[in-house]
Amino acid sequence: MLQIGTRGSKLATTQAGHVRDWIIAAGAPAELKIVKTEGDVNMAPVERIGVGVFTQKLREVLDAGGCDVAVHSFKDLPTAADDRFHLVIPKREDNREALIARDGLRLDELPEGARVGTSAPRRISQLLSLRPDLDIRPLRGNIETRMSKIDDGELDAVVLAYAGLIRNGYQDKATQVFAVDEVMPAPAQGALAVEVRMNDAAVVEVVDKLTSVIDRDCAFAERVVLNRLEAGCTAPVAAYSTFDEQTGMITAHGGVFALDGKKRLLAAASGTDPIAVGEEVSQALLADGAVELLGDS
Predict the structure, then answer these.
(1) Cα gap 42→36, rounded to integer Å
(2) CA distance 154 to 233
(3) How far apart are CA 291 and CA 217, in angstroms?
(4) pTM above 0.70, yes or no
(5) Which of 30, 137, 156, 157 has the most crowded CB, counting CB atoms within 10 A?
(6) In the predicted model, what is the mean pLDDT of residues 245-270?
(7) What residues act catalytically?
(8) Hey, how many other C-beta atoms are within 10 angstroms of the C-beta on 4?
């Protein structure tokens, strides 16, 4: 019975549950194993405690043999490869951003000075670019906690990853789903990362059956942008990719944003090698002054 390590939140167990079901369908028995991380008990903003608290403990348990498989949100993993683990990217969920607002409002319908919850600099900068009048408030907690702040009257709206809403069955709560070129998502948003020990050949063979090559390559191109800019996953850096089945070409788009929403740098590149495509995007952003813009954020 393969033990699948996961955090205990509803979103994490739902994501890991999908992986469990896929592994069972691939012919191997599997069950979830809950691993408590510091991020589950420390309610400080993720920008202060670091998103690594959500992944480091899982990796430690996996490396020590406490579980056979670890499931992460790919966007939460460090961009540097970890030679201890074999990484698989299954079929990706919708990577767009979603607004959940009171009274079914869209972003342009929110009143002046509306209180919108998000702690992600990438989201803050893009929201202020669209609506400089917004009162952006910090937001922490699971999906249910974040959405409850609207019902409690504390906030007028929150912005969340649409993938998380879909996986938890809350997609109908979204009052607006932004186009990827309107509010650019985080690199690898919507993708899961399934890790197993590199030397565990039998488990590697099982999880390799879950691989979605197109989703893997698109996510890799996006994460190369983040890596080459030497920016963490909480930095105001965004990326998304598309794949043309006729030509086999990946087109990656990257963006770097000033936190006040007053400046943005955008770049795009196409090719068949996801690493090269990501490199080209990042080099264009660097040439345009990405380091200086990130330093000001």
Answers:
(1) 11
(2) 27
(3) 25
(4) yes
(5) 157
(6) 96
(7) 75-76, 122-123, 140, 146, 233
(8) 24
